[in-house]
Amino acid sequence: MFHRLGHFVVKRAWWVIIAWVIASIGLAAFAPKMSASTDESEFLPKHYESIRAAALQEEKFPAEFTPGAILLFERTDGGTLTDADKADITKISQGLADKHLPLVEQVIAPSAQTHTISADGRYGMGMVSIDKTKMQTDEYGDAAKGLRTEGKKLAEGTALKYQVGGQAAMALDQKESSSATDAITMVATVVLIVVIVGVIFRGVLVGWLPVLLSLLPMIAASGLIAFVTKLFDLKSSPIASAIQIVVILGVGTDYFLFLMFRYRERLRAGDDRKSAVANGVARVGEAIASAAGAVTVAFAVLILSELGMFTALGPALAISVIVTALASLTLTPALLAVVPTKATFWPGKKWMEEPKGARFHKLGKTVGRRPGLVAVLSGGLLVVLSLAGLGYQGTFDMAKSMMPKDKESMVVMDTMMKGGSQGAADPTHVFLTTATKDGGKLDTGVLEGFGAKLGQVPGVASVDAEQKISQDGTTADFKVTLKDSAASNEAIDTITELRSTAHPAAPSGTEALVGGTSSVYKDINLAMTHDYKLVFPVAGLLILLILGLQLRSVVAPWYLMASVGLGFAATLGATTVAFLKIGSEPGLMFMLPIFIYLFVVAIGTDYNILIIARLREEAREGRSPRKAAEEALRHAGPTVAAAGFILAASFATFMLAGNVLFAELGFALSIGIALAAFVMAMFFTPSITALLGKKAWWPGHGAMPDHGPESIGERERETAGRI
Questions:
Q1: Mean pLDDT of 586-603
Q2: Model pTM above 0.90
Q3: What would the mean pLDDT of 534-563 be, rounded to a whole number?
Q4: Poorest-pLDDT segment among 46-50, 176-180, 194-198, 393-397
Q5: Helices (H) and strands (E) in the chain — how many of each?
Q6: Which residues, 6 or more positions from 72, have their beta carbon under 8 angstroms from its beta carbon?
Q7: Maximal C-alpha separation, the chain
Q8: Is the CB of residue 20 less than 8 Å from the CB of residue 345?
């Protein structure tokens, strides 16, 4: 199949290139516009309690609002607010209301009555209602921008420092931060690829080829993703674009190197340019397709996730990988077929020469001679790192982790926490309602006792003495202030206790629903637990099936998956040590284990597939298991090392973004890819295969001599492509 594909592409190279250009431009031109959501509650299904509570609040208390923006007032000298300061605050707040800024519905000045003056008297916190129907538009963030600009003008000439935080301000800051992150990621990744690939192949053009070849797939994939997102009404995460850039550039470079090393290898064996391209596709096409299939499956199963962020991200990344793989098997060989060989490797002149005593030849001999020792050492390293993962602790403060700490919305949040006003800014609401039961009116005589029970829950600071009753008399709103920050693990634990108390305490004929930000985080935690139990096993089984079909073996896929599973645990352990033991973070972001699992399992399987495919190829030529391991590492080792190093370095660029989430993602994924390439694929997999011998291919005939299109004699003239 891939032999025929290679020859087809070479014969019609210009038609293939033109088809890619037209398709990419067409998809980009007609793709619908997408907007990313920063509201965690939008990523949860409607059956979760926090979402049901939010819907009930919207229906029964439409006049109530969760502030879209928070106005923070403090003295420039850090002192206590004076009566004159408070008068200025009221004047500024009224001035903002009088300006009738777009989407701004109401501005409420801070006051002692609303508990929005901090206990120490240093901070005042104003509340702004912003049109919630515009939350997923740029206008929502623009409202915060207007509040910042106009408010600071009004504060001129006073002793006050004025800042704007809250959801709208976070949306604005997140947009600016994401744009910067995407730019940093793109530039750093491109520089890494150009320099490293150029050094490997000692050429200028060849260094730029994987970048240039990624442009059309990136454009085409973005267009397809936009169509799919709109068609299935999926949510778009603000981190998706940066990850997509690295996936397409990184995975595309991997597949480029898979083909490029074989292309150079065939040129060194005496093939002309077009024959070398066609034979290269024939040799690595199956490995690329299988690797892409494993990655696609790992991403696609995220559609089973309960979190909208992942149900949107999974298909987006799956589409990116499919498009990249198609480009690697068609566009890349087409371009190599039309570009003269000397131009491809210019200005290098020694690309046809075989280096002597290459390091991978020596590594191959070590693995072939001492497979048992290599297996113990490489496996032992993974086990030791895995044990460190027992100290894993998650955190759910997504907004705070996705932006640099010096962003104004983050400064406001931290200041409110220091001033003790965080509870007032983001309270928990417990609703007691008959609306979901018999529909009758509430017995107000039971409210006081119910509220008293809520106040006894550990972690609850206070419950408002007076409860708001809905206009139809069916629902009461108990405003509960927690002792801890809404996004903290302590607050989430309090929600667990609050629900355990509120549900059985609800009088007959009523139902208690716990809502608010902390309740949303609690439900995200529950959704993640669901995903761990469903998404992980399904992805693992499907990848196992792909490996079995590709290798025609029952045995090999199991130890390949076991090695990748160890890689996942080792990556989580190394990240835990770096950020929780050595660093000072309270926990790792809640979605990090899923990202580690997907990227390490999927891309780790890529490298295993490349090595195991070469192992089978060498075994089919009649080599002993140990000799096959030696030759496989000698020939495929440079490809795995180069691809792994580039992808790990690409993910490491995330750490330049300046926020905690991308720092953790960058570190974890770069370490995971490094372990997958330099420990699992290069040592653990070939050493285990050498120890198992022909049993590794049972019940297929993977180790049987292959006298296919080329005879053994012709294959023996091939020389290895090395760095």
A1: 80
A2: no
A3: 86
A4: 176-180
A5: 26, 11
A6: 123, 124, 125, 126, 162, 163, 164, 165, 412, 415, 416
A7: 95
A8: no
